[in-house]
Specification:
The protein has ten helices and six strands. It is α/β, with parallel strands linked by helices and 247 residues long. The radius of gyration is 17 Å and the shape is globular. It starts with a helix and ends in a 33-residue tail after the last helix. 32% of the residues are buried. The C terminus is likely disordered.
Length: 247
């Protein structure tokens, strides 16, 4: 993020504003009972790309604030019962990745049992490269073991997985959104909203800042954290437990 103005604005409006995420924003009541949707992801695998595809294409899941950071919600000691009773939220979690997640397995399991489980998946080599850019190589030596533990935890829960290359490629948006519509039992949008083009850097920055200020009042939101341009990645061949039939 080389632009000084962008750096300044991102400090003034960080990604975790009350209009964007709970916490710090409070939960809002749902107009109709809907299941919770968990986006379970290892960091740097496309977490917010998938979250934004959900928020921009399925109005029933656009809330105020837009989504829940489940790791921070549980770390803050907020009640699981209220979250389950409210329903209809997209929940972000990196559990059980230790650096990002609270150590409250029973609370996580209580939520995962009834939620729709979704997961972005990205080749390990690309995750490692993204880690290097984000952390300057810190913790990279621990990455293979952390990935192995993460995959072992989720293997038994069999979330519906989405290849990172599909999530960021507008050519795949209609197919991805159609799968999501089926999983969520929601109407399929007539014109699916794709992730922003990597060439539209200024527009992306403005949309991120608008999302942090206005939340669900913005017609198209962008909840992603960083401002770096996303590099392309080869199509991922999922592990056996991640495979799904193409719809």
């Amino acid at each position: 993020m080389g632009n000084p103005l962008v750096r300044f604005l991102s400090r003034v409006l960080p990604p975790n504003t009350p209009k964007t995420v709970c916490p710090p924003g409070p939960l809002s009541a749902s107009a109709s009972p809907l299941p919770l949707v968990v986006v379970a992801s290892f960091p740097r695998t496309g977490t917010h790309v998938l979250i934004d595809l959900l928020l921009n294409n399925f109005p029933a899941y656009r809330r105020d604030p837009l989504y829940v950071n489940l790791d921070e919600y549980l770390r803050a000691g907020l009640p699981v019962e209220e979250l389950l009773r409210t329903g209809g939220y997209v929940l972000k979690t990196h559990y059980p990745e230790a650096t990002f997640s609270a150590d409250q397995q029973a609370a996580y399991e209580q939520i995962f049992r009834t939620a729709i489980l979704l997961m972005p998946a990205r080749p390990a080599v690309d995750v490692a490269r993204s880690y290097r850019r984000m952390l300057g190589g810190a913790r990279e030596a621990d990455l293979p073991a952390a990935l192995q533990a993460y995959e072992a935890y989720w293997r038994a829960r069999q979330p519906e997985t989405f290849a990172f290359a599909e999530l960021i490629d507008p050519a795949w948006t209609a197919s991805v959104v159609a799968r999501l519509a089926t999983l969520l039992h929601q109407p399929q949008p007539r014109r699916p909203i794709s992730p922003p083009s990597r060439r539209s850097y200024l527009r992306v920055c403005l949309r991120k800042l608008g999302t942090r200020l206005l939340g669900n009042k913005l017609s198209v939101v962008n909840t992603t954290v960083g401002f770096a341009k996303t590099k392309s990645t080869p199509r991922l061949e999922p592990a056996p437990w991640q495979r799904h039939e193409q719809r």
